[in-house]
Every structure is written in structure tokens, then in C-alpha cells.
Design a protein that fits this description.
Distance between the termini of chain A: 90 Å
Strand order of the largest sheet of chain A: 1-2
Strand content of chain B: 25-35%
Number of helices of chain A: 14
Number of domains of chain A: 3
Shape of chain A: elongated
Distance between the termini of chain B: 21 Å
Largest sheet of chain A: 2 strands, antiparallel
Largest interface: A-B, 35 and 42 residues
Number of strands of chain A: 4
Number of domains of chain B: 1
Order of helices and strands of chain B: EEEHEEHEHHHEHEHEE
Number of helices of chain B: 7
Bound molecules: adenosine-5'-triphosphate, magnesium ion
Order of helices and strands of chain A: HHEHEHHHHHHHEEHHHH
CATH topology of chain B: Rossmann fold
Oligomer: heterodimer
Strand order of the largest sheet of chain B: 6-7-8-3-9-10
CATH class of chain B: Alpha Beta
Chain lengths: 420, 220
């Protein structure tokens, strides 16, 4: 109090910040130590004490209700107001809010992983169709085909989970960072396995539905056998490559959808983070679905986005490659008609860009809506966020298409003549 | 227009197959020539080598004054695009593109230097093969004979010197087949395109100026 008077003179002081020494983690011991200090301050000075985490001011949303006196004088509730650094709650709830923010980001990443798993399971199913049909023809039951598919997902999930955890643990060990506790080390592979199983539920259902005979005669899932579609619109020679690319994406719609959704999630996260960093000084805060969220955007969040984008690129690359392999005949014809290697490669890079763009548009919409739900207004930085949200997935799609396009460019023209 | 000298092709994936042996022949500009012979006699192999879809084991192919053996990569693609038109037994139209788009397809990446509008030209050609009212149909909505006409129009888009047709009537009934042959014959007469047709079909062979017979990879 003396120090305050010395600095501020006789002016009113609304708050004094006291930093408790020797606290660097949120543990129950730390909590009780802080509480002891707080009650001592209260006892000796009569001041109200609030406990908060962190050493610098942070924007915090609080519900400001009028007290009875104010109500009596006609001052209404203010509702939610943003205050800097003042926290009307106790430490642990604050901690929980930070965690729920992280949880949002981690969930987005897990969802990305789940979509990737679904994509892989679906690709695996498409590749095994003939085998499945044969097994069915030989008298396998639908349920056996289903469990077979799920078992594959179980094994690959366990493998990926254990491998990924081991990799992450060894990186942590190399960086001399403390390892997570044993339950986490065991729990993460199980979580990955669960995701993998979840992703393969629908493919497993489809595996059970494979028909024995028709599939032996013609490749492709049901959508291949649809009646010839009606021609939609006309296109001049200029738009033809774009239309072909779009048709290529639509042809493998199920896989494109999965890969596109993966890209969309990553792009959405990117839009959110870029928006938060440019316009909100790097603090992701607000109320989402009734949960108050507060996260400072850090390096590892960008890493999450990076991992999501990498998964998306892998998914898109896979889907594009499948498209190239399915259309070797088409490509051979183009070659026979005199298309140069570069022209063929460009066609498939375009397909990657189209796939990326679709993901980008969906993701940007997603990211923007979450941002709006949090802040209800956008700033100039949103321009960058939107550019990134559209541009990065398109770039990712083109990159993902590099290898498939190379494969396409290498198809020899004689391929046009090869019988099925 | 087409000359081959001691053309030999031995397929070596698996047990070696001598598909073509020492074939020397000459085809003049504007000729309509049928290549016949039993299955496996090397008809398709010969057409593929002339069309630069495949490389000979030994020997030379000269088309329109160009020794195609000296061409590589882009030059080879350009050569095919500028001088050769293919008509395949299985039509090989791109199923997701309309008739008009399929006809434009060979020149789509190269439309910038063209002296004509690609779309107009494709439309004219489809009209010339009698499909003026099917421009926006997908291959799946066309009969086999109609699909083959689209393929012929596609082969003509680059005003080729040579049309190579491997069993163009093989997947058609006799009437549609006869129409395709008549069309090829007409294009040959009116436009002076050299036409080389590999076929089992006697009707096709009879329409030709000349018939080359192959047996076990040799001209007989
Ligand atoms: N890619 C290949 N690899 C190995 N052998 C081949 C290949 N293509 C053709 N052959 C063989 O070369 C020989 C000639 O084949 P080609 O396809 O030229 O015959 P064809 O006269 O066109 O027969 P058809 O009338 O049945 O079409 C055949 O013995 C065939 O088995
Ligand atoms: Mg043949």
C-alpha cells in the first residue's frame, strides 16, 4: 500500500498485481500456496484478491451483472464485457478454459486423422473389390467380409498409433524433453486405433455389400454402372481441361470428398489462426458452443496445421494417383493423339488444383464461420487469412498431384491399345 | 507417303515373340490400303510401328519424308499430332467428354497457334461424318457406329496426312461397319488422306485400292 501511494499519489487504484514467486506450474501445491498468500493479503489489508495465471494482461470475457444497488438505480446488466487481465474466477477454471481451447485445435487435428484413416480404408476397399467379390462368390458371409475389413483397420491403426507414438517419444527424448506419462503413451495408440476403426466402419459396411457376380465382370463400385449421365452445359476448348479435371474429381467423388474434407479442416484451422494472429494479436478467445476459450497461438499450433495439411496432401495425392491409374487408357489415347508429356502432366496438376480448391473453399467457409462465431466481426487481416485458406490448399493439391502427374506423363501411348 | 525397310519387331516381355519380320513396303500418298491376315499375324504391330506408338527392334519407318526412328519425346508427340490420325477398334473416346469435346481433344493444349477456331472446325467435322445433331452427346449415349464416326472426326481434326485404323469395324455390326468403310473411303477420295486399315473384314478389303497380306509377321 505504501508503494502504491508512493507511485500513484492520492489517485484511486483499481487493482494491484502481485506476482507470487517460485510458481511455474499449475499444481495443487502451487494452488494452495497462492491461496495462502491471497488470504494473507486479504486478512492484512482488507483488499479483495482474485487469482489468475500468467504474468501479462490478457483479454478475458466476463459476465457483468448489475448488483442490487445498480439495479435499483436503473443500471441494467452489461452482459459480456472484455476486460484486460482481471479474472473473476479461480485458477483451475482458467486452466480448464485454456485446455478447452487446445482441445478444439487438437480435436480438429484428430478429425483430420480420422478422415485420412477413412480415406485409406476406402482406397483399400476399392483396391480389393475383385477379391471381395470372389470371396463372396466362393461362399464367404457378408459378416466375414466386414470383420476382415475391420481387422485390417485394427492392425493398421495399431501399427500407425504405436509407430507414431514411438516416433514422437524418441523426438521428445532426443530434445531432452520429459516424456508424457505411461497412460498417455499407451492411450494414444489406442486412440489412433479407435480412429482407424471408426474411419473404416462405412467401408466395412460396403465390403459386406459387395455383390459376387457383377463385380467380377466389371470393375468399379456401384456408381460406375449408373446410366450415362446427361450432358451438363457446353464448354469451349478453353474450359475443356478444367472440366475434365472437375469430372475426374467428381468421378472418384467418395475419395475426393474424404481428401477434400481433410484439406478443408486443415484450411479452416489455417484461416482461423491467420485471422487470430493478424487481427487479434495472437489470442484465440471467445465463447464457442457455450464454452469459453482462450489460447495464445504458438508455434505448435502452426505445426498442427502443418500436420493437417500434410495429411490432406497425402490423401489428395492418393486419390489423384488412383485416378491416374484408373485412366491409363484415356492417357494413352491423349499420348497417341499427340499430346506432349507436359500437356498431360499439366492436365493432372490441374486436377490437383481443382481438388485443393474445393477443399480450400469448404475450409475457408468453415474457418470463417468459427471465427465469426467467436468474434462476430472481421478485420483487414481476414483478407490474408482467406488468401491463405484458398491458396495453401490449392498449392497443396498441385504438390500432391506432382507424383500422379509424373506417372500420367509416363504412360506410353501403346497403353491406348491394351485390351482390358 | 509410308515406307518401311526391313522392319522387325520382337516382343521380349516374356518369351520372345517375333511379331514382325523384315517387312519392307511402300504406300503412296492418297492410297487406301487394307492389311489383312490371320489373328496374330502382326497387323496391329505394323500399324503401331508406323503410327510411332511403339519402336521397332530393327529396321526403319519413314512417314511423309520423316524417319520416325530419329524422333524422341516432344518431337514424336508433335509428329503424331500433326501428321497421323488414329482410329481404334474400341473407339477410345473419353467417356466423360461430349462428342464435340472429344473431337477437339487432340488440339486442346495447342489451340493457341491455330488459324481456325477449334470448336467450329470440330463441329464441321462432326457434320461431315453425319453427326451434326449429336454434338453434345456423351459417348455412352451414342451407338457403336456413331462413336466410331466421332473417332474418325477426331482423327481428322489435325488434317493428318495418314489415317491409321486398326480394325475400325471390329466392334460394329456389318451394316454400321459398311458405313464406316464408306466414310473412310469418301474421306480418302475427297481429302486425299492416305488410309491404312488393318482388318479381318472382307468388305473392307474389297473397298481398298490394294491389300497387303501378312502371315507370321511377313508380307505374303
Ligand atoms: N505387347 C505384346 N507383348 C508380347 N507379345 C505381343 C504383344 N503384342 C502383340 N504380341 C504378339 O505379337 C504377335 C502379333 O500380334 P498383333 O497384335 O500384331 O496381331 P494382329 O494381326 O493384330 O492380330 P489380331 O487380328 O488378333 O488383332 C502375336 O503373336 C501377339 O501375341
Ligand atoms: Mg490386331
Amino acid at each position: 500500500m505504501e508503494a502504491a501511494r508512493f507511485i500513484g499519489g492520492d489517485k484511486c487504484i483499481s487493482a494491484i498485481r502481485v506476482r507470487v514467486d517460485g510458481i511455474d506450474q499449475l499444481t495443487p501445491q502451487a494452488q494452495s500456496k497462492i491461496e495462502a498468500v491471497a488470504s494473507e493479503i486479504h486478512r492484512k489489508t482488507g483488499l479483495d484478491v482474485d487469482i489468475m495465471v500468467g504474468s501479462s494482461p490478457r483479454p478475458v470475457l466476463i459476465l457483468r451483472r448489475s448488483d442490487p444497488v445498480e439495479l435499483a438505480t436503473g443500471i441494467p446488466d452489461l452482459g459480456y464485457v472484455e476486460e484486460w487481465w482481471v479474472q473473476k474466477n479461480v485458477t483451475l477454471s482458467y486452466h480448464r478454459r485454456i485446455q478447452s481451447g487446445h482441445l478444439l485445435l487438437i480435436t480438429a487435428l484428430l478429425l483430420t486423422g480420422g478422415l485420412f484413416a477413412a480415406d485409406m480404408a476406402w482406397a483399400d476397399l476399392l483396391a480389393r473389390q475383385r477379391t471381395l467379390a470372389l470371396q463372396k462368390a466362393l461362399g464367404w458371409r457378408s459378416s466375414s467380409l466386414m470383420t476382415q475389413t475391420l481387422r485390417r483397420a485394427l492392425l493398421s491403426g495399431l501399427g500407425a498409433g504405436a509407430g507414431g507414438t514411438a516416433l514422437a517419444a524418441s523426438i521428445l527424448a532426443l530434445a531432452r524433453h520429459p516424456l508424457p506419462s505411461l497412460p498417455w503413451l499407451l492411450g494414444i495408440p489406442l486412440l489412433v486405433t479407435a480412429l482407424s476403426l471408426l474411419g473404416s466402419l462405412y467401408p466395412a459396411l460396403q465390403a459386406a455389400r459387395v455383390l459376387p457376380i457383377p463385380l467380377l465382370q466389371m470393375a468399379g463400385l456401384r456408381h460406375r454402372a449408373r446410366r450415362p449421365e446427361r450432358t451438363r452445359g457446353r464448354s469451349g476448348s478453353f474450359l475443356l481441361p478444367a472440366r475434365y479435371a472437375l469430372l475426374g474429381v467428381a468421378r472418384r467423388w467418395s475419395r475426393s470428398l474424404l481428401a477434400g474434407l481433410t484439406a478443408a479442416l486443415a484450411a479452416g484451422l489455417l484461416v482461423l489462426l491467420v485471422g487470430v494472429v493478424t487481427d487479434r494479436a495472437g489470442y484465440l478467445s471467445g465463447t464457442l458452443l457455450g464454452e469459453y476459450i482462450l489460447v495464445q497461438v504458438e508455434g505448435y499450433h502452426w505445426m498442427l496445421v502443418g500436420v493437417g495439411l500434410a495429411l490432406a496432401a497425402a490423401g489428395m495425392g492418393n486419390s489423384l494417383l488412383a485416378g491416374v491409374l484408373e485412366r491409363r487408357r484415356d492417357i494413352g489415347v491423349l499420348k497417341a493423339l499427340g499430346w506432349r508429356t507436359v500437356a498431360v502432366a499439366r492436365l493432372f496438376l490441374l486436377e490437383g488444383a481443382v481438388l485443393g480448391l474445393l477443399g480450400g473453399v469448404a475450409g475457408t467457409a468453415l474457418g470463417l464461420s468459427v471465427y465469426l462465431a467467436l468474434y462476430r466481426s472481421v478485420g483487414m487481416g481476414m483478407v490474408w487469412a482467406l488468401l491463405a485458406g484458398l491458396g495453401v490448399p490449392v498449392g497443396g493439391g498441385v504438390l500432391a498431384a506432382a507424383y500422379p502427374a509424373r506417372m500420367a506423363a509416363r504412360v506410353p501411348p501403346v497403353e491406348a491399345l491394351r485390351a482390358e | 507417303m509410308i515406307t518401311t525397310e526391313n522392319l522387325t519387331k520382337i516382343y521380349t516381355d516374356g518369351a520372345p515373340v517375333r511379331a514382325l519380320e523384315d517387312v519392307t513396303l511402300e504406300i503412296a500418298a492418297g492410297e487406301f490400303v487394307a492389311i489383312t491376315g490371320p489373328s496374330g499375324s502382326g497387323k496391329s504391330t505394323l500399324l503401331n510401328l508406323i503410327g510411332t506408338l511403339d519402336r521397332p527392334t530393327s529396321g526403319r519407318v519413314v512417314v511423309d519424308g520423316v524417319d520416325v526412328g530419329t524422333l524422341r519425346g516432344n518431337a514424336l508427340a508433335d509428329f503424331r499430332r500433326e501428321r497421323i490420325g488414329f482410329v481404334f477398334q474400341m473407339f477410345h473416346l473419353v467417356p466423360t467428354l461430349t462428342a464435340l469435346e472429344n473431337v477437339m481433344l487432340p488440339l486442346v493444349p495447342y489451340r493457341r497457334g491455330l488459324k481456325f477456331r477449334l470448336e467450329d472446325r470440330a463441329r464441321e467435322l462432326l457434320e461431315a461424318v453425319g453427326l451434326g445433331d449429336r454434338l453434345h452427346h456423351l459417348p455412352g449415349q451414342l451407338s457403336g457406329g456413331e462413336q466410331q464416326r466421332v473417332a474418325i472426326a477426331r482423327a481428322l481434326i489435325n488434317t493428318p496426312k495418314v489415317i491409321l485404323a486398326d480394325e475400325p469395324t471390329g466392334n460394329l455390326d456389318s451394316r454400321a461397319g459398311a458405313e464406316i468403310v464408306a466414310l473412310l473411303r469418301q474421306l480418302n477420295r475427297e481429302r486425299g488422306v492416305t488410309v491404312l486399315v488393318a482388318t479381318h473384314n472382307e468388305v473392307v478389303a474389297q473397298a481398298a485400292d490394294r491389300t497387303l497380306r501378312l502371315r507370321d509377321g511377313r508380307v505374303v
